[in-house]
Amino acid sequence: LRFLSRDFPRHGAAMRRWVEFVLEHNPHCTLWIVIELGEGGELPRERDVESLLEACYRRPLSYLDWYFSLQPKPGGIGAKRLIISAPQSLAKGLERLRRRLPWIDCVVADPSPGR
Fold it and tell me: Which terminus in the chain has less CB density within 10 A, N or C?
């Protein structure tokens, strides 16, 4: 699932509902959640990010969760993965978030023109 938002805190609950919907209809899928924050956006709150991961693992683990949990990163915690991409202006805050939530992956977007 790919979410684009400048205002993640306002849309966190809707994102969680999408995660729950996808996994309800595809319980054995691998799932990467990519959150792309636009310039001038806000980083998600810790509790909202934790809520997304909780939605991923609310159901019993599938074969792929067990398989990928044995793999080194980028497998992370099973077959579910959460990636946050933010512009350079949010890089310091993104690094702080990654230190507090080490199971997420963080990417600072390329500031080059044409993106």
Answer: C
pLDDT for the residue numbered 64: 79
Residue 38 sits at the vertex; the CA angle it makes with 34 and 41, to the nearest 5 degrees, is 105
Distance CA 54, CA 7 (A): 21
Q: What is the spatial distance between Cα 78 and Cα 69, in angstroms, rounded to a whole number?
A: 4
For every residue of 20-54, DSSP letters joined together read: HHHHHH-TT--EEEEEEEEEEEEPPPHHHHHHHHH
Token pair of 13 as six digits: 């609950």
Instruction: List, for residues 12-32, the tens digit of each pLDDT value.
Output: 889 999 999 999 999 888 888
Q: Count how many residues are written for the chain.
A: 115
Low-confidence ranges of the chain (pLDDT < 70): 70-78, 111-115
Rounded to 5°, the CA angle 57-104-95 comes to 155
pTM: 0.81
Residue with tokens 């199971």: 103
